[in-house]
Design brief:
- By secondary structure, this protein is α/β, with parallel strands linked by helices.
- It folds into 2 domains: 3-131, Rossmann fold, CATH 3.40.50.720; 134-366, Dihydrodipicolinate Reductase, domain 2 (2-Layer Sandwich).
- The protein has 10 helices and 17 strands.
- The strands form 3 sheets. The chain has a 9-stranded mixed β-sheet with strand order 16-15-14-13-7-12-11-8-17. It has a 6-stranded parallel β-sheet with strand order 3-2-1-4-5-6, sandwiched between helices. A two-stranded antiparallel ribbon has the order 9-10.
- Strand 14 and strand 15 (283-288) form a beta hairpin.
- Helix 1 packs across helix 9, helix 4 packs parallel to helix 5 (110-123) and helix 5 (110-123) packs antiparallel against helix 10.
- The radius of gyration is 21 Å and the shape is globular.
- The protein starts with a strand and ends in an 8-residue tail after the last strand.
- Bound molecules: alpha-L-sorbopyranose.
């Protein structure tokens, strides 16, 4: 029988559900050396918690993350809480010797992230950052095209991440609007994804120049007369220079009417270009220079058996979705802890991403370009 790995998941809402789904699916579609067990799920709202626990088949429920972290039967702590809890939960879990999975962004700021990196290094525990978009097969294909030199030297890495769930000024105040709980708004939430993708696909940032704004400054609070003050950005744009000489241009906003989860990358190189849009995540647009009159962008449907992770799912053309990327990332995690050769982003990646996010924030506050440190290992 395979070794069972008991999971303790902290958070039972959107990300808690996405992770619950992935824990269930991963052993069904991937042949793993270990068996993940949905041991305990934790949440503050008992009604929500029970609903998620029942629908995904969690064995136990708890409203205390401390109890879950202290439970000797639990081997992995997975953090899907609002951002302000990432650091205390991760440090307590590291001190208890648990393996740790943490949603992005790693923390509210680099200071907290650095403490987390230090705690997992001292405790010597396995740690993984959830950067699920690295696990979209189309992104892996783009990475291999870049790494194989197909599009040549990179000139531009341009990214927009558009959502529109805050266009409505009546959309209520939630933790994401409170800087104490979230650390930042659209910036940390959405730019964490694109900064990580840029690091993953083309390399480290050298310097950044940011611009943040909160267009809708007050929002209604359910059950209260007075609106609450929004203390986080709803838009953050920035320019970047990369260490390899490429230039970057980025926009993240929750005010892009009509755009739901529109993360578009446009990468231009000396020999060609690749484009990607998360709302069409099975596709890659690819262009190679030539003088042929029929030359132009071609659309690659990334659902062939040769494409990363795809052979575990369906025949060609039977497209996959947003939730599959979490399953892919978990398959690498369980393969790795089961002794197989697999790797994944860790807290050091989370910290490096956070350094870039903090530098953009600083640049926006000071109206000045901000340089990144010239190293990437911080223990
Ligand atoms: C909300 O902006 C959100 O759910 C993010 O928190 C996720 O990380 C992203 O994948 C989708 O949008």
């Amino acid at each position: 029988m395979k070794r069972e790995i008991n999971i303790g998941l902290i958070g039972s809402r959107f990300m808690g559900k996405a992770h619950s789904n992935a824990y269930r699916r991963v052993g069904e579609f991937f042949e793993l050396p270990v068996t993940p067990v949905l041991h305990t799920i934790c949440g503050r709202n008992e009604q929500d918690l029970k609903k998620t626990a029942d629908s995904f088949g969690w064995k136990n429920m708890s409203t205390s993350w401390q109890h879950v972290v202290e439970d000797p039967d639990i081997e992995v702590i997975d953090i899907c809480t609002p951002n302000y809890l990432h650091m205390p939960v991760a440090i307590a879990a590291a001190n208890a010797g648990k393996k740790i999975i943490c949603e992005k962004p790693i923390a509210r700021n680099a200071q907290e992230a650095q403490d987390m990196v230090y705690a997992v290094a001292v405790a010597d525990v396995v740690n993984m950052m959830i950067f699920n978009y690295r696990y979209v097969p189309a992104i892996r294909l783009i990475k291999s095209l870049i790494d194989e030199g197909k599009i040549g030297a990179i000139f531009h890495f341009n990214a927009v991440y558009y959502q529109d769930w805050l266009v409505d000024p009546h959309s209520p105040f939630v933790w994401r609007h409170n800087i104490e709980e979230s650390g930042s708004g659209a910036h940390g939430d959405m730019n964490a994804h694109v900064v990580d993708l840029a690091r993953f696909l083309i390399g480290e940032f050298e310097s950044v120049c940011g611009l943040q704004k909160t267009f809708i400054t007050h929002r209604p609070q359910p059950g209260k007369k007075e609106p609450a003050v929004v203390s986080t950005d709803d838009t953050c744009c920035f320019q970047a220079k990369f260490r390899n000489g490429a230039l970057g241009s980025f926009v993240a906003t929750r005010l892009a009417a009509g755009r739901k989860n529109f993360l578009r990358l446009e990468i231009f190189g000396s020999k060609g270009s690749v484009n990607f849009n998360l709302e069409r995540l099975n596709e890659v647009e690819f262009f190679l220079h030539s003088n042929d009159k029929e030359n132009g962008f071609r659309n690659i449907l990334v659902t062939e058996q040769v494409h990363p992770y795809i052979s575990n799912w369906w025949p060609p053309g039977h497209v996959i979705g947003w939730e599959h990327a979490f399953v892919h990332q978990f398959s690498d995690f369980f393969n790795s802890i089961g002794g197989r050769d697999a790797n994944f982003p860790d807290f050091n990646d989370g910290l490096n991403c956070q350094f870039v996010l903090d530098a953009i924030q600083k640049s926006s506050d000071t109206n000045k370009w901000t340089a990144l440190q010239n190293k990437t290992s911080f223990v």
